[in-house]
């Protein structure tokens, strides 16, 4: 039997994730495995926590990677903080806000939503009006809405909640590692992300962080967390302290990979990383404009790492993406929900955000469209 893995090609990943991986991260993934209770592996765990705290700009002690993809981070935050009947407000302007609504509803929360047009940001004044009408245990927001390329005003929403008893829950799956995320300064109580986007590590881990206020809520629940695997009160005992308590077999080599990916970000410097993402975002936008292609999102609300563009008149969505993949070895993303067939999503995430990648993509797109 022929080994199918031998047919894997190197593809330039310029979709909404996963992103390209630095060679040193691949090397870290291939290192010799240790036991998940090994003293040296615990040292690596501690260093991963410290690196995550640096990238997230937080002092939260409970800052760890969950063993699962980014969606497991979402589940972790909601399942630990929600008890049946809890009032929750979800701010929605894309697919992942809708997913938050679904997850909270499945847990029996009393869910209200504020919805905004896809391609536009959440409006803080509308949120202020809603907060004056009802008290909520949790207000949840997607910082960087991957389905549209919109940057939502996380800092402004955090300001609205300061001095209240509400917990601020923030999705940073696409933003973490590519733009500023100031967990503590913004008053974020529960934050989750994923490894496969701007952190430039394969999918498989979901960094999360919980404030002391959030941990107090979890430890004083009236009912047990309904998900054993994601129960933070149990995970804490594996990730903290001198005497670690076995919870589950951690994905050891994925944690090696995350360590190296975070190390690269900190070594480059957070501000330098953010500037690099923005610089090549600008280069991409300029090149697209020269091709007559328009952006979906107004300039002040655009994400540097996820660029949504209108499909040009006369271009076939699937055919263009297929030709980019087959002829040029480049992957881009399709639109989702009401934007399906109307936009393409171009990722400049993490290690993908390089000048040579932008030029290669623009040349390939021009060739495909001309043909």
Tell me about this structure.
With 371 residues, this protein is an alpha/beta fold. The protein has two domains: 4-18 and 269-370, Aspartate Aminotransferase, domain 1; 23-266, Type I PLP-dependent aspartate aminotransferase-like (Major domain) (Aspartate Aminotransferase, domain 2), CATH 3.40.640.10. Helices cover 40% and strands 15% of the residues. The chain is built from twelve helices and 14 strands. It has helices at residues 23-29, 39-56, 70-81, 95-106, 124-133, 154-161, 212-219, 232-239, 252-268, 270-290, 317-328, 355-370; strands spanning 12-13, 62-67, 87-92, 110-115, 138-142, 144-145, 150-151, 167-171, 190-192, 205-210, 306-310, 330-331, 333-334, 343-347. It has a seven-stranded mixed β-sheet, sandwiched between helices. A hairpin with a 4-residue loop joins β6 (144-145) and β7 (150-151). The chain is globular and about 65 Å long. The protein starts with 11 loop residues before the first strand and ends with a helix.
Task: List the SSEs and their pairings.
Elements: E1 12-13, H1 23-29, H2 39-56, E2 62-67, H3 70-81, E3 87-92, H4 95-106, E4 110-115, H5 124-133, E5 138-142, E6 144-145, E7 150-151, H6 154-161, E8 167-171, E9 190-192, E10 205-210, H7 212-219, H8 232-239, H9 252-268, H10 270-290, E11 306-310, H11 317-328, E12 330-331, E13 333-334, E14 343-347, H12 355-370
Parallel strand pairs: 1-12, 3-4, 3-5, 5-8, 8-9
Antiparallel strand pairs: 2-10, 6-7, 9-10, 11-14, 13-14
């Amino acid at each position: 039997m022929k080994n199918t893995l031998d047919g894997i090609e190197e593809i330039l990943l310029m979709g909404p994730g996963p992103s390209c991986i630095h060679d040193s991260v691949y090397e870290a993934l291939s290192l010799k495995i240790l036991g998940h209770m090994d003293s040296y592996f615990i040292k690596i765990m501690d260093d991963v926590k410290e690196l995550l705290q640096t990238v997230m700009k937080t002092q939260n002690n409970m800052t760890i990677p969950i063993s699962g993809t980014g969606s497991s981070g979402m589940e972790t935050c909601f399942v630990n903080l929600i008890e049946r009947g809890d009032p929750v407000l979800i701010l929605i302007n894309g697919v992942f806000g809708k997913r938050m609504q679904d997850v909270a509803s499945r847990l029996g929360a009393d869910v209200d939503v504020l919805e905004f047009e896809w391609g536009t940001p959440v409006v803080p004044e509308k949120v202020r009006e809603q907060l004056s009408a009802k008290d909520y245990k949790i207000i949840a927001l997607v910082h960087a809405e991957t389905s549209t390329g919109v940057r939502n005003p996380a800092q402004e929403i955090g300001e609205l909640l300061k001095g209240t008893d509400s917990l601020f829950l923030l999705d940073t799956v696409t933003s973490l590692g590519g733009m500023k995320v100031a967990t503590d300064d913004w008053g974020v109580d529960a934050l989750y992300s994923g490894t496969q986007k701007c952190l430039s590590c394969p999918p498989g881990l979901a960094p999360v962080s919980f404030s002391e206020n959030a941990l107090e809520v979890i430890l004083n629940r009236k009912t047990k967390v309904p998900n054993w695997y994601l129960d933070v009160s149990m995970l804490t005992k594996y990730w903290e302290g001198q005497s670690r308590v076995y919870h589950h077999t951690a994905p050891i080599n994925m944690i090696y990979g995350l360590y190296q990916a975070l190390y690269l970000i900190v070594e480059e410097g957070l501000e330098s990383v953010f500037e690099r993402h923005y610089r090549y975002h600008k280069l991409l936008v300029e090149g697209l404009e020269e091709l007559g292609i328009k952006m979906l999102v107004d300039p002040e609300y655009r994400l540097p790492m996820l660029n949504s563009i209108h499909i040009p008149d006369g271009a076939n969505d699937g055919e263009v993406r297929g030709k980019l993949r087959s002829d040029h070895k480049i992957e881009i993303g399709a639109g989702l929900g009401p934007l399906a067939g109307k936009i393409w999503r171009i990722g400049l995430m993490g290690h993908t955000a390089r000048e040579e990648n932008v030029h290669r993509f623009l040349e390939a797109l021009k060739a495909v469209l001309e043909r």
